[in-house]
Specification:
By secondary structure, the chain is an alpha/beta fold. It has two domains: about 1-120, Rossmann fold, CATH 3.40.50.2300; about 125-220, Winged helix-like DNA-binding domain superfamily/Winged helix DNA-binding domain (Arc Repressor Mutant, subunit A). It has eight helices and eleven strands. The strands form three sheets. The chain has a five-stranded parallel β-sheet with strand order 2-1-3-4-5, sandwiched between helices. Strand 8 and strand 9 (about 145-150) form a beta hairpin. The two termini are about 25 Å apart.
Length: about 230
C-alpha cells in the first residue's frame, strides 16, 4: 500500500515514516500544502495522512482541493487541536478520520488499517478466500489454518492483490503502489515475487489463486468465503 504523509514537523514526519515503513507500507512525504495538492492530484495513493497546521496552505485546504479534483483517496487528518469544532471542520472538508496529537503509533496503525479496509469494501481485518486467510492487523497469511512465512515484499504484493480480488492489476500499478521510488522496478523482479507467492500459497498447484492475465497483469482469482 502506498501512502502520502503531509507533515511539516520534521521529527514527527520522521517518526511517521519509520513507523509506517515498519508495517510494510510504501510511504512518500512532503511538508508543504501546495506540494501536497500537486502530489495528491498527480499521483495515485491508497491513503494520505495530513496535518491540519501546514504552512502556507492548510491541511484542510489541501483536502478541499483534492475533493474538488475528485480525488477519492482516504484521508486521515492529524491535529493538535482537540476541539470538536476542528474535528467537524476536518470531516466536512472531506477527511475520513482524525487523530489528535500526541498519539500512539499503535492507534495510527489501527486507523490507517481500518480506512484502507473500508476503502476496499472490507469490514473485517481478516480476508478469507477459500483456504487462504490474510489478517491485515497481524500481517499474517494462513493457508488451511497454517501460517506461511512471507517476505515484506511478498506480503505487500499478496495484500494488494487480495484487497483488489477479482480485478486485474497491471504490473505498473503493482510496482507503483508497493515499492519505494529508489527500488529496482524491473518487471522481472515482480514476476519473481509472484512466482514465490504461488509456490508458498499453492505448492500442489490445485488452487491457482493468482492468475496471469496475458498482456494485462495479475488477478487474485479465489472467491471470498465467510
Amino acid at each position: 500500500m502506498k501512502l502520502l504523509v503531509v507533515e511539516d514537523d520534521p521529527d514527527l514526519r520522521r517518526q511517521l515514516l519509520t513507523g509506517l515503513n515498519s508495517k510494510a507500507y510504501t510511504v512518500e512525504e512532503c511538508a508543504d500544502g501546495k506540494e501536497a495538492v500537486y502530489m495528491g492530484s498527480e499521483y495515485d495513493y491508497d491513503l494520505a495522512i495530513v496535518d491540519i497546521g501546514l504552512p502556507g496552505l492548510s491541511g484542510l485546504d489541501v483536502i478541499r482541493e483534492w475533493r474538488r479534483a475528485q480525488r477519492p483517496l482516504p484521508v486521515l487528518i492529524l491535529t493538535a487541536r482537540g476541539d470538536w469544532q476542528d474535528k467537524v471542520e476536518g470531516l466536512e472538508a472531506g477527511a475520513d478520520d482524525y487523530l489528535v496529537k500526541p498519539f500512539h503509533m499503535e492507534e495510527l496503525h489501527a486507523r490507517v488499517n481500518a480506512l484502507l479496509r473500508r476503502a476496499a469494501g472490507h469490514a473485517s481485518p481478516q480476508m478469507n478466500y477459500g483456504p487462504i486467510t490474510l489478517d491485515t492487523v497481524a500481517r499474517a497469511v494462513l493457508v488451511h489454518g497454517d501460517e506461511i512465512k512471507l517476505t515484506s515484499y511478498e506480503y505487500r504484493t499478496l495484500e494488494y492483490l487480495m484487497i483488489h480480488a477479482g480485478k486485474t492489476i497491471s504490473k505498473g500499478e503493482l510496482t507503483e503502489h508497493l515499492y519505494h521510488q529508489d527500488y529496482d522496478r524491473d518487471s522481472n523482479v515482480l514476476e519473481v515475487f509472484v512466482r514465490r507467492l504461488r509456490q508458498k500459497l499453492d505448492p500442489d498447484s490445485t488452487l491457482n489463486p493468482i492468475m496471469t492475465v496475458r498482456g494485462l497483469g495479475y488477478r487474485f482469482a479465489l472467491e471470498a468465503t465467510e
